[in-house]
Amino acid sequence: MTAVAEALETSRVESHLHPEGSYDVGDHVVPTGREEIWRFTPLKRLRGLHADAELGSGATTYDWNTPDGVRVEVVDGTEARALRGISGLVPNTRFGARVLADVPTSLLVDVPADAEVAEPVIVQVHGTDAADTEAGHVALRFGRHSRATVVLNHTGSAALAQVVEVLVGDGAQVTVVSIQDWADDAVHLTHTQALVGRDASYKHAAISFGGDVVRMDANVSYAGPGGSAELLGLYFADAGQHIEHRLFADHDAPRTKSHVSYKGALQGQGAHTVWVGNVLIRKVAEGIETFEENRNLVLTDGCQADSIPNLEIETGEIEGAGHASATGRFDDNQLFYLRSRGIEEAEARRLVVHGFFNDLIRKVGVPAIEERLIQTVEAELAKNVTPAADPIAGPNVGGARP
Fold first, then answer.
1. Virtual CA dihedral for 4, 8, 11, 17, nearest 10 degrees?
2. What distances in angstroms separate CA 125 from CA 60, 104, 131, 178, one per listed residue?
3. Exposed (0-12), middle (13-18) or buried (19+): which is 165, by Cβ within 10 Å?
4. Which whole-number Å values give the CA distances from 16 to 206, 213, 274, 313, in the listed order?
5. Which of 2, 252, 255, 368 has the fewest CB atoms nearer than 10 Å to its CB?
6. Least confident of 35-44, 190-199, 246-255, 343-352
């Protein structure tokens, strides 16, 4: 455990939003599904990653580019152990504790202080066999006043338990994009923990399209006042897919900010998405600002979208705090307007979905990724699905649970 992790661990107070953690695997029982943080996750489909599956290596490969001045390397031994906990992470899940305790190597992306990296660092994580359960630890370290973007691109077939730690130095401006574009049989259980320095800016974009089951936890806390975090998410679930995103913004320093915006679409029988947004404002966090929102668009019958925002406030001395959540079908007025002007239904639906996602896509801030997302949404809409409703022909009742 690093000095940062030790200091944060001793300063934590118990919160119903976020169970206390431990580095000791033995302190974490195998979840049954009755626990609050596991009640939505289909445990039987996780291939034991949440429990005691063997964590092998070799079926998942890593490739990357290396812009000038940036170090990207797989490290082991003392250096790997020193990276465990750089984000202040104290695992609150068994799989997280197992990754930190049992995985002998770490993929390190190290951006030095004052560096301005114009080219994104792109790490390709590719799975070759979903029958092999594996685990990985990724450490992203950004020095003081640095500027950089890192993209983690997940593809192929895999069963992967993963911990990603992000350390954002004072005054740094950082973007981390995690793309889950797995094959249909993949299982991805991942936790991202970020520690944002004084007056630093951190943007995290979680983009999930592929996989059988994808569950991503994205947490952020602050190492000093003035830090800001923008947590973005975009997901599209098809028939049988389970895509789950859990957020925790822990305001443990004054004058910090967080803004959470996630949007998702669902189509096909059995498509299931889960979004849980937790924000904790501690007593010391005076003058903070926070807002979180989740919007879900249901395209066909047979889908379910669960959306749960939570806000816990321990001080009244804040600038502002709020949350919003909505799950619904197409805006009938928008469809009617387009259809009444001679636009065919399929094209009208395409335009509405692109409009739903477009503002969020433009916030990612990486042009190549933004263009790819537009194309991916287009490909999803091209799949053979039955329309949920036709505002001209009449309604079709059914669909999501708000």
1. 180
2. 7, 18, 16, 10
3. buried
4. 25, 26, 19, 12
5. 368
6. 343-352
Q: pLDDT tens across 70-100, in order?
A: 999 999 999 999 999 999 999 999 999 999 9
What pTM, to 2 d.p., does this model score? 0.89
pLDDT per residue over 374-395, tens digit each?
A: 899 888 888 744 444 433 333 3
**Residue 354, helix vs strand vs coil:** helix
> What's the token pair of residue 237?
């679930």
Alpha-carbon radius of gyration of the chain: 21
Beta bridge mates, 296? 264, 327
Query: Cβ distance 180 to 207 under 8 Å?
Result: yes
* Residue 309 CB coordination number (10 Å): 18
CA gap 272, 239 in Å, rounded: 8
At 199, give phi and psi (nearest 5°): 55, 25
Helices (H), 74-182: 77-83, 94-102
Query: Angle 101-102-103 (CA atoms, 0-180°, nearest 5)?
Result: 110
Beta pairing partners, 126: 61, 155
